[in-house]
Design brief:
This protein has helices at about 5-10, 55-80, 85, 90-115, 120-140, 150-170, 175-180; strands spanning about 35, 40-45. The chain is mainly alpha-helical. The protein has two domains: about 5-45, no CATH class; about 55-180. Strands 1-2 form a two-stranded antiparallel sheet. The longest helix is centred in the middle third of the chain and has 26 residues, at about 55-80.
Amino acid sequence: MPDDRRLHTAARGLGREAFDGRAALRRQWPLRIDVWTNRIAVVDKKEVHGDYPMKGWLLVLCVWLLVWQPLNLALTMSSALASLAVRGAPLAIAIVVRTIVAAVGIAAGLALVSRQPAAVTLAKVALILSAAMDVIVYSTRYFPSNRYPGDAPIYIAATTVYHAAWLAYLFRSTRVRQTFR
């Protein structure tokens, strides 16, 4: 008759002792179910999202959200703040809104890097807000620019295609689905 203590711990799923000495090491442990504090049951903890490394285009998107977008904001704001006295309240509102859009992008980038469950949705929202803000900046005269007259449609088309490509990647990528399932 087996040891009562061993049988008791194996029945609860907490025993980590081998059942058969000849079996492969990866198959000899009893199945374990953990219930986390957020009431999600995880079996064996090997199939948890986040096991896939952050690389490829997903890493490029994270760098764009965490590095390029704040850097671009800082560079454009340095020239915009100089003309704030001339352009007035519309420019101040545009600066505040553009800062909020960059903050949402940073939050999305941090959520993607830390593999939060709603990170992809937040990244989609950040891309849509960034595209909308770029279209507003390129189509109005509130924000100072060095563009030639008549070039605004080219900039609007380019930013729309750019953000649409990132949104298509987030919707269709298997790496995104595997990383954030």
